[in-house]
Specification:
InterPro entries: Phenol_hydroxylase, Phenol_hydroxylase_sf
Order of helices and strands: EEHEEE
GO molecular function, one term: phenol 2-monooxygenase activity
Protein name: Phenol hydroxylase
Radius of gyration: 15 Å
Largest sheet: 5 strands, mixed
Distance between the termini: 27 Å
Number of strands: 5
Shape: globular
Helix content: 10-25%
């Protein structure tokens, strides 16, 4: 995301991709859920498959809501674009990059 500074800003980002090695940060937002006021942020391997990402990271986080039903998760979006993620592809193969925002409905 581009940021326009109001003054000379000459510092490297503290959360730049190169600091995470083979991992990356991915934001996940549950659209329409009033319990989660903002996206969760997860440090995940770039090589994790989407199925493993959902099972190991998203489902546990979303289960904080007692009404969460992992089987009802769908409507995935990458930023504002709908996607149908292949569960066997990695996040990298799906175009999910560092600090990307994935959202879903359930």
């Amino acid at each position: 995301m581009t940021v326009k500074a109001l003054y000379e800003y000459d510092y490297p980002s503290a959360d730049r991709a190169e600091l995470y090695g083979d991992d990356q940060l991915v934001y996940v937002y549950w659209r329409g859920n009033l319990l989660f006021s903002s996206a969760g942020c997860f440090r995940v391997p770039r090589a994790v498959t989407f199925a493993d990402f959902q099972e190991q990271f998203v489902d546990g986080w979303a289960a904080s809501d007692p009404d969460f039903d992992a089987g009802a998760v769908g409507g995935w979006q990458l930023f504002d674009e709908p996607i149908t993620p292949d569960p066997h592809k990695t996040l990298e193969q799906l175009g999910v990059g560092h600090k990307a925002l994935l959202s879903f409905s359930a």
